[in-house]
Design goal:
By secondary structure, the chain is α+β, with helices and mostly antiparallel strands. The chain has two domains: 2-166, no CATH class; 170-295, Glucose Permease (Domain IIA) (Distorted Sandwich). It has helices at 2-10, 36-50, 71-77, 82-88, 119-127, 159-166, and strands at residues 11-15, 18-21, 26-27, 60-63, 103-106, 110-114, 135-140, 146-153, 170-171, 179-181, 184-187, 194-197, 200-203, 209-211, 216-224, 228-234, 239-249, 256-257, 262-266, 276-283, 286-288, 294-295. The termini are far apart.
């Protein structure tokens, strides 16, 4: 009975091999006695793992993670591989789950591979071969955008994909990295007083190539008194990366960028003690320590 009630809102069209999804039911609690939708999702997962031929149709739910939850605890609560949740939501790293944003949860395990890959990670997923027969589906994201996927029931990341996914969220913006001034409070090199440094300074001579640390879209470029010539790139999950004291900017506002693209040449613009790269990471507009999220030495 429960499936019949909610299937009409979760599954709008089944034509041939294409499924189009729309409004997804919201699971509010990961306790079966408190949420019948969670109970239904758990029954479907258990049915899948039982190996029966009478498998449930693919359904998708919404869920708002608590502040104490991460990707791995959410995957455990729903009895799913984190691969399934990550690919359905288009994440290329565990840290993209946010307690402030709803995520999509499937009722059976598998990989959701975009038919039109965007960025390096999605191209990796699309280029790798799978053993199961895919189902063509269209999924509406939590932002309302509908995208086509190939769903591979029961599939997981390959070992290479798993290593890539579990690595750092950002790659180094320089080929050779040496941190000359870390994130946090420090003695101001100009005033001598204690001041907060919202990023890290990386050693770089004039006109050293600077690379995008992650796939994204150029939010802004320009010149500020302190930062000199700068670039700000928007990334998934509410993240931004900032590159400052540049000598030359090689990208434009609104441009789509892939990780590893050359975006600038380092310099000594703005208030600076000499040529170097100032690199910041922000989440939801607030600075975070780049050393915790960046593979500086890999």
């Amino acid at each position: 009975m429960l499936r019949n009630i909610f299937l009409s809102t979760a599954l709008i069209l089944a034509a041939g091999n294409i499924l189009v999804f729309a409004d997804y039911p919201l699971i509010q609690y990961t306790i079966e006695s408190r949420d019948p939708l969670y109970s239904q999702q758990q029954q479907d997962v258990e049915l899948w793992y039982s190996g029966t031929r009478d498998l449930p149709p693919l359904m998708i739910y919404r869920y708002l993670p608590r502040s104490s939850e991460n990707l791995f605890s959410v995957a455990a609560a729903f009895n799913l591989p984190y691969d399934s949740i990550a690919t359905l939501n288009g994440w290329d790293a565990p840290g993209l789950l946010s307690s402030e944003k709803e995520v999509l949860i499937p009722n059976i395990p598998g990989l959701f591979v975009p038919e039109k890959p965007e960025g390096n990670w999605q191209r990796v997923l699309a280029d790798n071969s799978r053993t199961s027969e895919p189902v063509n589906i269209k999924v509406s994201s939590t932002t309302g955008e509908t995208k086509p996927f190939k769903f591979f029931p029961g599939e997981k990341f390959t070992s290479a994909e798993r290593i890539r996914f579990l690595g750092s969220l950002f790659s180094a913006p320089l080929r050779d990295v040496k941190i000359t001034s870390p994130y946090g409070y420090r003695s101001n090199p100009f005033s001598g007083g204690l001041s907060f440094h919202p990023g890290v300074d990386l050693r770089a001579g004039m006109n050293t190539p600077v690379f995008a640390a992650r796939d994204g879209i150029v939010k802004d470029t320009g010149t500020l008194e302190i930062y000199g010539h700068f670039i700000i790139i928007d990334h998934d999950g509410g993240y931004q990366s900032v590159y400052a004291h540049l000598n030359e900017v090689l990208v434009s506002t609104g441009e789509t960028i892939n990780a590893g693209d050359r975006i600038a040449l380092s310099g000594d613009s703005g208030i600076s003690t000499g040529p170097h790269l100032h690199f910041e990471i922000r989440r939801d507009g607030k600075p975070v320590d780049p050393s915790r999220l960046t593979s500086f030495y890999n």
